[in-house]
Design goal:
The structure holds 3 protein chains of 3 kinds.
Chain A lengths: L1 H28 L4 H6 L6 H10 L6 H13 L5 E2 L4 E2 H33 L1 H13 L2 H15 L12 H31 L1 H8 L4 H38 L5 H10 L3 H29 L7
Antiparallel strand pairs in A: 1-2
Chain B lengths: L5 E11 L4 E12 L4 E5 L6 H7 L8 E4 L2 E4 L2 E2 L5 H7 L4 E4 L3 H4 L6 H12 L4 H14 L5 H5 L8 H13 L5 E5 L7 H16 L3 E6 L2 H5 L4 E6 L2 E7 H6 L4 H11 L12 E12 L2 E12 L3 E5 L6 H9 L6 E6 L2 E2 L5 H4 L6 E4 L13 H8 L7 H6 L16 H13 L5 E5 L7 H18 L2 E6 L2 H7 L2 E6 L2 E7 H6 L4 H9 L8
Parallel strand pairs in B: 3-9, 3-10, 7-8, 8-9, 14-19, 14-20, 17-18, 18-19
Antiparallel strand pairs in B: 1-2, 1-4, 1-5, 5-6, 10-11, 12-13, 12-15, 15-16, 20-21
Helix pairs in contact in B: 4-5, 4-7, 5-7, 7-8, 8-20, 11-17, 14-16, 16-17
Chain C lengths: L2 H14 L3 H19 L35 H36 L2 H16 L2 H12 L3 H29 L1 H8 L4 H14 L2 H21 L11 H8 L8 H33 L1
Classes of the chains: A mainly alpha, B alpha/beta, C mainly alpha.
């Protein structure tokens, strides 16, 4: 058990290290000098250049620079955005909450909708799922916006001031997730309902609905959990576009602005943050697996 | 006189599949009286399972069930609504399927599975249900019921699992117990225990409907036997009458296959072909093979028997040079075959061939039969004569393996194995996946190859009957060791080791009265 | 087992398989889209000609999809946009498939250490948001069509590499490879005759489905302004440009969006159809 936990933590640290190193490599690979890359479209003065060289230890050997970068990243110091004149951690920290709110709301909505589809409308799921997965999320957002905000006026057009402002973005992001998840759940249910244990359960006199909820659903949840953890990646990526559509503050906006103005320190920090989210989600997924499937609990 | 539990007349079951319609059962009639044990015997595709399942309305989705009479528990089941069927399931009839590892929900505890039946069919409280589940486990002789009830199916041995499955089928106090291949996935010794349990249920007055492909298993328990083939009932009668004089040729064929037939040989053993000395294979901290030695001579068939986990397949891999022994040595045709690089083995490779249990996975799915066999032949030789030798015509030449029947596939596998004229063929459970009547043909084929070519065979099987019919010498393996070896006659007629005796006693045999 | 179990499975396969008319419609739609990309003037006029008198005009006989904020014909722009969007998608998919096969085989056939390192990175990267991977690349290489193509290609590599690696492992351990050893096959021979054909067989079908993903991603990124720059017609960019006039002229944004959706659905339907056929052939 302890070795399993240690291995889990070790793997997580490894992923974070890989992400940080990849980000650092990307910085080195950027055209122009490293200083130019860090400045981006920000003000370019000799003072700022000196400050960057000092902060990134650019006058020291490459290995020292790299190790120092890792050391600072491990302590949560992700550098400074010279464009915004603020520490990167402050830039990201201030925008983290609205994005998390959106991601969690979308995931919950997607999961609930997927369960409803998979259990109550199994025949329809493959068609609905196909359409939802194939539609660009921003198109869904635009249509929802034009119908419910512009035409009917039920929800605010932009911002993040009220719960109402969260509804449309969460639906927009949740729909594609629901589409994928419902398909996975449905396939899992179909497979489980064909298994011999489902026949045994029916032979006990259980109703079909009871065979589904008491036996098959748990089996179908296993692949769905994997899918849900994957969809968090989609969510984080999705915020980049959805926050644009709905004019919401958040990490997505920060990322797009940073990419547009070549503010590399911020982009790299977002990448490392996403890796951290990935590690957390993966750990939760593994735990969920152990909870659901006793066969995996062996030592 | 009490009415029959089940009365079926002219039962027809049709499956409407996407592109075709399959008549799985055609015009079958039978009755089951209270207290008797009826068996349905047939090979795969005979419709025996579907027939049994239709008695509880579980013939399967897409199935259309028609009958002149379908009386279950005295009621006309032809007009049953789903809720009528549900009342019968578990209450009137309990169902036991083949492999408890998948027939019990692997994500729920054994106790919960048994208690579920009580939840549906009684108004007992939760604690009463738990107590009843423990009582049922005790009734089917599961030791330490308290501990076992809290465990999951994968934590139980095959035998205990199957007992738990039977307990769950008994929980609703059914008048009829339907057992569909209840012992097929089990080792011989465990199979014997489960059969004993079923016999015990019968002596307690339970009515049994037994479904099996194995006439020998059935003959131990059943009062009456129904023989099915291709969806039709070809013959029925008391077990005694069928065994002493069956009318239908198909039944006689099944009986002949189940009682076995010794294939004697005139071939004299020649020089040593392969020799393994003091083989030992350790995986992690587990010794899978311990100090195994075997010598195989030209023209000889050596049987290697053992239950699952005995290490017999590892021995095959060691001899074949797929796995390197931890210690010990393999020599083939006088040359070192283990502990050398694959390059050194390659010139000898075509002299040593292999036939596996599952021929489908042994063929590249993208290759036709022609290409598969041609690869094995010396360059320029024609494929047709080899196929003829295994009884296949030219019509299979351009087919893909998946387009062949199980028997045809195994014949192609044999053709491929004999094509390079090897001196030794290792056969790992070559007939286990085949229907009994096909098994016989394949065994004849293998015996003929030894007789004509003088090819040596190492025949690995869990099925002692098959080994007895074919092998000159036998090695019995248990826990990675050879516990007994000798000529077939000696081992089967005067077994020395206790384990061999236990194995032999467990083998269901058919006692055909003349 | 008996028919009781094969029956429902067959029924299930049918219910999952896209309906046949659907496949036909999808194929037709894709053919038209390809034709439009190859020869746009066959279907519509100049995508850049602005008609100031018909700004934001509703769909009509002369302008099937209406006009945009500059009075340009939306239908003409969608047709001409097919060239941009499809070629971006196809090029990106080719990059992803090519690199994916190479890395996947390297992991699947190479040394254990190489496999461990590569497959760990594939796993981590494929769980990583595609948009972020692409954006990271664009942040460094700058915006533009080439950069967009490479960015999407790189983002999709882990997916293909994983599939190829997994398939390689399955084939390598397959019993028929063991049997080829029995005939003295050397390693290169094994790889060429058995492993490669069986590993690469399903790739074209996966590539078709992957193309849908690439087009979706491309639309998203050009929606953010990272793709071909105005005034060149590109589907994602058109949706973005029309967004500001949504409350008075929904068509300028929604209709191009529906074309994107239809394209991706068609690709998925066709891809899955062949995938099922392929699997069915393997199983039956």
């Amino acid at each position: 058990m302890i070795t399993a936990v240690l291995r889990r933590v070790g793997a997580g640290v490894l992923v974070l290290w890989a992400a940080a190193s990849a980000a650092y490599l990307a910085l080195l690979a950027a055209p122009g000098s490293t200083v130019d890359a860090i400045i981006g479209d920000g003000a370019d003065t000799p003072g700022i250049r000196a400050q960057i060289i000092d902060e990134w230890h650019l006058d020291r050997p490459a290995l020292v620079q790299y190790l120092d970068f890792l050391w600072r990243a491990a302590h949560g110091d992700l550098g400074r955005s010279y464009l915004l004149q603020r520490p990167v951690s402050a830039v990201i920290g201030s925008q983290l909450v609205p994005t998390l709110k959106l991601a969690v709301a979308a995931a919950v909505f997607g999961l609930v909708l997927a369960l409803v589809f998979a259990i109550f409308a199994r025949r329809l799921t493959s068609v609905i799922g196909l359409v939802l997965v194939s539609t660009p999320p921003f198109l869904i957002g635009i249509v929802l916006l034009s119908v419910f905000s512009f035409t009917l006026g039920w929800f605010p057009v932009s911002g993040d001031r009220s719960f109402a402002a969260l509804v449309l973005p969460a639906i927009t992001m949740g729909l594609p997730i629901a589409g994928t998840l419902a398909q996975v759940l449905r396939e899992g249910l179909d497979r489980a309902l064909e298994e011999p244990f489902a026949v045994t359960a029916r032979a006990r006199g259980l109703r079909e609905r009871a065979v589904l909820t008491r036996h098959a659903l748990k089996h179908a949840l296993l692949p769905a959990v994997t899918m849900l953890s994957w969809s968090f990646g989609v969510l984080i990526g999705g915020t980049v576009i959805i926050e644009q559509v709905f004019g919401r503050p958040g990490l997505g906006q920060v990322t797009v602005q940073a990419v547009n103005s070549s503010d590399l320190p911020v982009v790299l920090a977002v990448v490392i943050l996403a890796a951290a989210v990935f590690v957390v989600i993966n750990t939760v997924t593994d735990l969920a697996y152990l909870l659901i499937d006793p066969r995996l609990r062996r030592s | 006189m009490t009415p029959p539990l089940v009365r079926v007349e002219d039962l027809t079951i049709t499956f409407h599949l996407p592109r075709r319609t399959v008549e799985a059962v055609r015009g079958v009639s039978f009755t089951i009286e209270p207290g008797e044990c009826v068996a349905i015997v047939g090979e795969s595709g005979s419709g025996k399972s579907v027939t049994a399942r239709s008695l509880v309305g579980l013939a399967g989705p897409g199935a259309r069930v028609d009958a002149a009479t379908l009386e279950v528990d005295g009621q006309d089941a032809r007009r049953f609504a789903p809720r009528d069927w549900r009342r019968l399931r578990g209450g009137f009839a309990g169902l036991v399927l083949q492999d408890a590892l998948v027939s019990l929900d692997p994500l729920r505890t054994v106790g919960a599975e048994i208690a579920e039946v009580l939840r549906v069919h009684s108004s007992r409280s939760r604690s009463e249900r738990t107590r009843e589940a423990l009582r049922l486990l005790d009734e089917v002789h599961v030791p330490e019921p308290e501990r076992r009830a809290g465990q999951y199916p994968h934590q139980l041995s095959g035998g205990l699992r199957q007992r738990a499955l039977i307990a769950s089928a008994l929980a609703g106090g059914p008048k009829l117990l339907i057992a569909d291949e209840p012992t097929t996935a089990l080792d011989a010794t465990v199979q014997a225990q489960i059969l004993k349990l079923l016999a015990e249920r019968r002596s307690l007055g339970d009515t049994l409907l037994l479904i099996s492909h194995d006439l020998a298993v059935v003959s131990r328990l059943a009062d009456r036997v129904l023989v099915m083939k291709d969806g039709r009932l070809v013959e029925s009668g008391t077990t005694k009458r069928l065994l002493s004089g069956a009318d239908h040729p198909y039944t006689r064929k099944l009986i002949a296959a189940a009682s076995g037939r010794r294939r004697e040989s005139t071939a004299e053993p020649g020089p040593v072909v392969a020799e393994a000395t003091a083989l030992r294979k350790v995986y992690g901290d587990r010794a899978v093979v311990r100090d195994v030695g075997v010598t195989i001579r030209r023209g000889e068939i050596v049987g290697l028997v053992g239950e699952s986990g005995s290490g017999k397949t590892t021995v095959a891999q060691l001899l074949f040079g797929l796995v390197e022994p931890t210690s010990g040595q393999v020599r083939f045709e006088g040359q070192r075959f283990s502990g050398v690089p694959e390059r050194a083995r390659r010139p000898l490779r075509r002299r040593l061939q292999f036939i596996a249990q599952d021929p489908l996975s042994a063929f590249d799915p993208r290759w036709t039969v022609r290409r598969i066999v041609a690869e094995a032949l010396p360059r320029g030789e024609s494929v047709t004569p080899v196929l003829e030798r295994v009884g296949l015509g030219g019509d299979v030449l351009d087919r893909y393996p998946r387009q062949l029947s199980g028997g045809q596939r195994q014949r192609v596998a044999i053709a491929r194995a004999i094509a390079p004229r090897p001196s030794l063929i290792i056969c790992d459970e070559p007939v286990s996946a085949l229907d009994v009547s096909v098994q016989e043909q394949v065994l004849d084929l293998l015996a003929g190859i030894r007789e004509r070519d003088g090819t040596a065979l190492l025949f690995i099987s869990h099925d002692l009957g098959v080994v007895r019919d074919l092998a000159d010498r036998v090695l019995v393996m248990q826990d990675g060791q050879v516990v007994e070896q000798g000529t077939s006659q000696a081992v089967f007629e005067q077994p020395q080791h206790e384990y061999t005796r236990r194995l032999l006693a467990a083998v269901p045999t058919l006692e055909v009265s003349a | 087992m008996t028919i009781a179990l094969t029956g429902p499975r067959a029924v299930r396969l049918r219910s999952l398989r896209p309906a046949r008319p659907g496949v036909v419609v999808a194929v037709l739609f894709l053919l038209v889209a390809l034709l439009a990309a190859a020869w746009p003037s066959l279907f519509a006029g100049d995508p850049l000609r602005a008609d100031p008198l018909h700004v934001l005009g509703a769909p009509s006989g002369s302008h099937w999809f209406g006009t945009d904020q500059l009075g340009r014909d939306v239908f003409a722009r969608v047709v001409h946009g097919a060239r941009h969007s499809l070629s971006i998608g196809v090029s990106a998919t080719l990059i992803a498939v090519g690199t994916g096969i190479l890395l996947g085989l390297l992991a699947g056939l190479g040394h254990r250490v190489a496999d461990e390192a590569l497959s760990r990175s594939f796993d981590a990267l494929s769980a990583f948001p595609l948009v972020l991977l692409a954006l990271l690349f664009i942040a460094i290489a700058g915006t533009g069509t080439t950069s967009l193509i490479v960015a999407i290609g790189i983002a999709l590599v882990p997916h293909f590499a994983r599939v190829v690696r997994a398939q390689t492992f399955v084939v390598r351990r397959a019993a028929y490879v063991t049997h080829a050893v029995a005939f003295g096959a050397t390693r290169p021979r094994l790889v060429l005759r058995h492993v490669l054909p069986n590993v690469l067989g399903p790739i074209p079908v996966l590539a078709v489905i992957g193309l849908g993903e690439a087009i979706l991603l491309a639309a998203g990124l050009s929606f953010l302004g990272m793709g071909p720059q105005p005034p060149s017609p590109e589907w994602g960019a058109m949706i973005s440009e029309g967004r500001g006039y949504l409350h008075i002229a929904w068509w300028a944004s929604v209709l191009p969006g529906l074309v994107v959706t239809a394209t991706i659905i068609s690709l998925t339907v066709v891809g899955r159809f062949f995938q099922r056929r392929f699997e069915g052939r393997e199983l039956a």
